[in-house]
């Protein structure tokens, strides 16, 4: 029997890319369970909706009855838990949804998977996997040097990263205590098609196109480690197929950049595709170069200074490496956003690229 993957949060940025990669690279049936929050959209899955191996269920991972029902009905051979509130700035404005989904919801999915898994025949029980998708932000902030390994102690600094750290601990505990075959992946910053425009790279692309200010938090010297989303998804399939249960794996592109470098790269690639001189929105504001739109704004509260992933474990154990350079990935990404401006409008009904996550007083 072919595998069935239950993909929670599969209508979001990384989830929908994973669905595409998994349909292309495996013969598995894919069942997406997604609440369709502001960050999730069926528009992200339009091109796979007609595939006979694809199924969609709308619902909340914190709804225990529903999750149990979906698991009993589709009998997955693996659960991949992407579902989460994912934006740090929103977690500063209102942590409650982060606790509900990232902590309680993740626990509900683990507990439902455990109940189902414990009754499976032994061969299916052995091959079952629960993959918890997590982030490098659980490790906190680095100084000028060094990188996060799987042994780095967790030290989350935002409500978002604290909620993700809690779920990582539950996934580990469910393996140690009940034997559920869980694996956790901690990945660095993803970019690519279908990323919601609240995140740095799509926000900068769209603001360039509209001739709007490019907001740079603080001094722009914060460092992130960037990975093209499809490379992340291929890494996740590798971990799912060959990773050791009870382990965690750091995934990252060995691609550290300061935020200012990212903004400059976006400006220069947008210029290649759509020169500022031909952009009416730029002419309207009297701007000649996209870089002139750069604007320093108040810093994010608790802003982590630097993230860097040491991916040695996944490279040596599972031979996974990203295939694209940042420049290649950025060209693909910017090309995609230029071709999908209708998608950006469609998913941004309630969000107008306003500043989020400042604390009063
Ligand atoms: P996203 O915000 O784009 O998508 C999240 C998806 O989860 C959406 O489709 C949303 O509708 C769904 N969802 C939210 N709450 C839900 C609930 N209660 N029940 C069911 N579905 C719900 O996020 P993303 O950037 O695709 O991130 C996916 C996962 O990867 C998250 O767990 C995140 O922590 C992790 N991650 C993200 C990055 C990154 O750079 N984006 C890096 C490392 C790890
Ligand atoms: O490291 C992995 C994490 O990467 C994921 O777990 C999160 O889900 C994902 O959102 C991302 O978190 P960041 O906070 O790093 O991403 P964001 O795009 O919000 O910000 C990237 C950097 O850019 C960060 O240093 C803040 C800065 N920034 C962000 C925005 C939105 C700006 O300078 N200006 C902005 O307008």
User: What would you give as the CATH superfamily of one domain?
Assistant: NAD(P)-binding Rossmann-like Domain
Reported for the largest beta sheet, the result is: 7 strands, parallel
- Secondary-structure arrangement, i.e. CATH architecture of one domain: 3-Layer(aba) Sandwich
Q: Look at the structure and give the mean pLDDT.
A: 98
How far apart are the termini? 59 Å
Give a structural overview.
The structure is a single chain. With 361 residues, the chain is α/β, with parallel strands linked by helices. Helix 1 links the parallel strand 1 and strand 2. The mean pLDDT is 98. The termini are far apart. The protein has a domain at 4-196 and 226-255 and 307-325: 3-Layer(aba) Sandwich (Rossmann fold). The chain is built from 13 helices and 12 strands. The longest helix has 23 residues, at 96-118. The strands form 3 sheets. A 7-stranded parallel sheet has the order 3-2-1-4-5-6-10, sandwiched between helices. Strands 7-9-11 form a 3-stranded mixed sheet. A two-stranded parallel ribbon has the order 8-12. Residues 86-88, 135-137, 188-189, 199-200, 203, 215-217, 222, 224, 259, 300, 307 line the site of 2'deoxy-thymidine-5'-diphospho-alpha-D-glucose.
Distinctive features:
361 residues, alpha/beta, Rossmann fold, seven-stranded parallel sheet, three-stranded mixed sheet, 13 helices, 42% helix, globular, binds nicotinamide-adenine-dinucleotide, binds 2'deoxy-thymidine-5'-diphospho-alpha-D-glucose
């Amino acid at each position: 029997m072919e595998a069935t993957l239950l993909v929670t949060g599969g209508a979001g940025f990384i989830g929908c890319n994973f669905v595409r990669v998994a349909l292309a690279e495996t013969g598995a049936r894919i069942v997406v369970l997604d609440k369709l929050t502001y960050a999730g959209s069926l528009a992200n899955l339009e091109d796979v909706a007609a595939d006979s191996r694809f199924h969609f269920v709308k619902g909340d991972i914190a709804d225990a009855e529903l999750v149990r029902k979906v698991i009993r009905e589709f009998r997955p051979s693996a659960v991949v838990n992407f579902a989460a509130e994912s934006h740090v700035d929103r977690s500063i404005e209102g942590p409650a949804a982060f606790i509900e989904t990232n902590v309680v919801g993740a626990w509900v999915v683990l507990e439902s998977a455990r109940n189902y898994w414990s009754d499976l025949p032994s061969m299916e029980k052995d091959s079952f996997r629960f993959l918890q998708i997590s982030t490098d932000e659980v490790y906190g902030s680095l100084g000028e040097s060094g990188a996060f390994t799987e042994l780095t102690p967790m030290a989350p600094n935002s409500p978002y990263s604290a909620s993700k750290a809690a779920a990582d601990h539950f996934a580990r505990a469910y393996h140690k205590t009940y034997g559920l075959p869980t694996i956790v992946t901690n990945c660095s910053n993803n970019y690519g098609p279908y990323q919601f425009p609240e995140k740095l790279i799509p926000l900068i692309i769209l603001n360039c196109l509209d001739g709007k200010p490019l907001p740079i938090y603080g001094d722009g010297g914060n460092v992130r480690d960037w990975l093209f989303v499809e490379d992340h998804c291929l890494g996740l399939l590798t971990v799912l197929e060959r990773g050791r249960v009870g382990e965690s794996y750091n995934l990252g592109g060995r691609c550290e950049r300061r935020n200012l470098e990212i903004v400059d790269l976006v400006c220069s690639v947008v210029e290649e595709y759509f020169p500022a001189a031909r952009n009416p929105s730029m002419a309207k504001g009297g701007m000649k170069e996209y870089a002139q739109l750069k604007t320093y704004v108040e810093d994010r509260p608790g802003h982590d200074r630097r993230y860097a992933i040491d991916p040695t474990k996944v490279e040596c154990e599972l031979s996974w490496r990203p295939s694209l350079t940042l420049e290649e990935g950025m060209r693909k990404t910017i090309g995609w956003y230029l071709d999908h401006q209708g998608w950006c409008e469609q998913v941004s009904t309630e969000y107008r690229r306003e500043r989020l996550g400042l604390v009063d007083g």
